[in-house]
Amino acid sequence: MPLTILSNNKKFSYKWLQFPKTCHEELDQQHQILLDRMNAIKEKQSQETKLATLQLMLAKLQTLFMQHFEYEEQQMLARGYSLFSDHFEEHQKFLTGSWLTLTLDAQGHIHFNLDALIQWNLYHINHFDRPMAEYLLAHT
Ligand SMILES: [Fe+2]
Ligand SMILES: [Fe+2]
Q1: 90, 65 in Cβ contact below 8 A?
Q2: Angle at 63 between CA 20 and CA 88, to 5 degrees
Q3: How far, in Å, from the CA of 53 to the mean position of ligand 1?
Q4: Among 5, 102, 86, CA closest to 46
Q5: How far is the CA of 60 from the centre of ligand 1 (A)?
């Protein structure tokens, strides 16, 4: 089944290799693992891919996101981070949103908006994770 990775309804043609660094080693490693999994989905674009395979990859990615968010939330709570609520809310919005869903068109083609997922992560890391990491590193 053909998979089309979307970028503003055009084909997604570039590949992110690294997210912005937070200088918090564990966080950066977890972000890299998430990005590697996103790129693995992109690689399926050039193959005939089963819908079930992609759904499984996205389910695993969702689990990784949940574990990653839990890690950040535990770190924030343990160190009394004052912006915890805003950050937690952003995580919840992501998990209840449609960032990790595939759509099927009338021709049976699968579409996945990897661009939106990458952009969400870039924004989140820059505006939420980096200030958090700075605080965590200063309060270890
Ligand atoms: Fe976060
Ligand atoms: Fe993060």
Answers
A1: no
A2: 60
A3: 27
A4: 5
A5: 18
Q: Is the pTM of this model over 0.90?
A: yes
Domain 3-138 CATH assignment equals 1.20.120.50? yes
- Ion ligand 2: residues, CB < 5 A: 129
Q: Per residue in 51-86, pLDDT tens?
A: 899 999 999 999 999 999 999 999 999 999 999 999
Q: How far is the CA of 55 from the centre of ligand 1 (A)?
A: 24
Q: Write the DSSP symbol of residue 97.
A: S
What is each CA distance from 98 to 64, 93, 116, 118, 140, in whole angstroms?
16, 9, 10, 13, 35
* Residue type, position 117, single letter: L
Q: Pick from 136, 125, 122, 43: which is nearest to 81 by CA?
A: 136
